[in-house]
Amino acid sequence: MHFFQEHDAERASVIGKCTTAEREYQPAEECANALRAQRQVNMDHDARTGSR
Question: Fewer beta carbons within 10 Å, N or C terminal of the chain?
Answer without folding.
Answer: C
